[in-house]
Automatic annotation (TrEMBL):
<protein>
    <recommendedName>
        <fullName>Putative nuclease HARBI1</fullName>
    </recommendedName>
</protein>
<keyword id="KW-0539">Nucleus</keyword>
<keyword id="KW-0963">Cytoplasm</keyword>
<keyword id="KW-0378">Hydrolase</keyword>
<feature type="domain" description="DDE Tnp4">
    <location>
        <begin position="127"/>
        <end position="274"/>
    </location>
</feature>
<keyword id="KW-0479">Metal-binding</keyword>
<dbReference type="GO" id="GO:0016787">
    <property type="term" value="F:hydrolase activity"/>
</dbReference>
<dbReference type="InterPro" id="IPR026103">
    <property type="entry name" value="HARBI1_animal"/>
</dbReference>
<comment type="function">
    <text>Transposase-derived protein that may have nuclease activity. Does not have transposase activity.</text>
</comment>
<dbReference type="GO" id="GO:0005634">
    <property type="term" value="C:nucleus"/>
</dbReference>
<dbReference type="InterPro" id="IPR027806">
    <property type="entry name" value="HARBI1_dom"/>
</dbReference>
<comment type="similarity">
    <text>Belongs to the HARBI1 family.</text>
</comment>
<keyword id="KW-0540">Nuclease</keyword>
<dbReference type="Pfam" id="PF13359">
    <property type="entry name" value="DDE_Tnp_4"/>
</dbReference>
<dbReference type="GO" id="GO:0046872">
    <property type="term" value="F:metal ion binding"/>
</dbReference>
<dbReference type="InterPro" id="IPR045249">
    <property type="entry name" value="HARBI1-like"/>
</dbReference>
<dbReference type="GO" id="GO:0005737">
    <property type="term" value="C:cytoplasm"/>
</dbReference>
């Protein structure tokens, strides 16, 4: 680890190479130590610190394994093995790091922050799917081709006002529509059975449900227009999260492994993103691409739930008339 860090002098340099400063790297090493500690102490075995730095370098840069290997004097296959083992270790922390607020106080704070964006009441999260491009897989290649003709994993994310990811589904190939990913997710079944204390905002690719509000497709009044404006402005949060995630971890812009390992890498980066947000790791806002505008992909027509229409009508009358 001394060799890896020897050329790095400042916190700014550490952040730009590894996406974490010294304290953040020490924290990650402590969290991952039980998963990465090798029982043998061979002279050439890598320390936990070295493994974590190699993996962070890859996640942050997306460089070829050879490039990282040459820069630190290990073999290409070592970089590959280390990255996959750190990715698996981080993925195992997903349920610990990616979750809805656990108490009333956190939930209320989150609602207040989301309300402060554009006056959208009682909102606990914003949902969207985003595609992570992968190389053409060797098996069932056609399933991974998305509507733009590229191979991808389609990932469902729910985010909050702190730009943290509070729920994710990382397993579907790129050809699968957002609405199907939702309907087959654990969160859908949980919220259909027990309505949450608050609503989630989604685009018109989703069905209107009593806990999931979508915008009006056709606006016929000022109050509906006001609702749509607040909805779109607040929903921009999930676009920002996507932008930050892919900026922080450039490896996510094109993942050169098979789908199962790609899912581990995506989960690992989601865990790292949440840790970085929680630790308030600084970001250079100028470097983060702005959301591409909320351009919605064509999706199959969604059937609205009558209970969802009733909640939406009540919201418009109460808050936007």
């Amino acid at each position: 680890s001394v060799q890896i860090l020897s050329k790095v002098n400042t916190t700014h340099e550490l952040n730009s190479i590894y996406r974490f400063g010294t304290q953040g790297i020490i924290y990650l090493c402590d969290v991952l130590r039980p998963h990465l500690q090798r029982p043998t102490v061979r002279s050439h075995a890598l320390t936990v610190e070295e493994q974590v730095l190699i993996a962070l370098h890859f996640f942050a840069s997306g460089s070829f394994f050879e490039v990282i290997a040459d820069s630190i004097g290990v073999t290409k296959s070592t970089v590959g093995c280390v990255m996959h083992s750190v990715a698996r270790a981080l993925s195992s922390l997903l349920n610990e790091c990616v979750k809805f607020p656990e108490n009333e106080e956190e939930n209320l704070q989150n609602k207040k922050q989301l309300f402060s964006i554009a006056g959208m009441p009682n909102t606990i999260g914003v949902i969207d799917c985003t595609h992570f491009h992968i190389q053409a897989p060797h098996e069932r290649e056609w399933e991974f081709v998305n509507r733009k003709g590229r191979h991808s994993i389609n990932v469902q994310l729910i985010g909050n006002a702190d730009l943290r990811i509070i729920n994710c589904v990382v397993r579907w190939p790129g050809s699968v529509h957002d609405s199907r990913i939702l309907r087959e997710s654990h969160i859908y079944h949980r919220f259909q059975q027990n309505t949450p204390d608050g609503i989630i905002l989604g685009d018109s690719g989703y069905p209107l449900l009593r806990w999931l509000m979508t915008p009006f497709a056709t606006v016929t009044s000022n109050s509906q227009q006001n609702f749509n404006y607040a909805h779109t402005s607040t929903r921009g949060t999930i676009e920002r999260i996507n932008g930050i995630l892919k900026w922080r971890f450039a490896c996510l812009n094109y993942i050169r492994v098979e789908p199962k390992e790609a899912c581990n890498i995506i989960c690992a980066c989601i865990v790292l993103h949440n840790i970085a947000q929680k630790r308030r790791v600084p970001m250079d806002e100028d470097d983060i691409p702005l959301p591409e505008g909320l351009i919605e992909a064509p999706q199959p027509h969604q059937t609205d739930e009558p209970a969802g229409r009733a909640v939406k009508r009540a919201m418009v009358n109460l808050y936007f008339s």
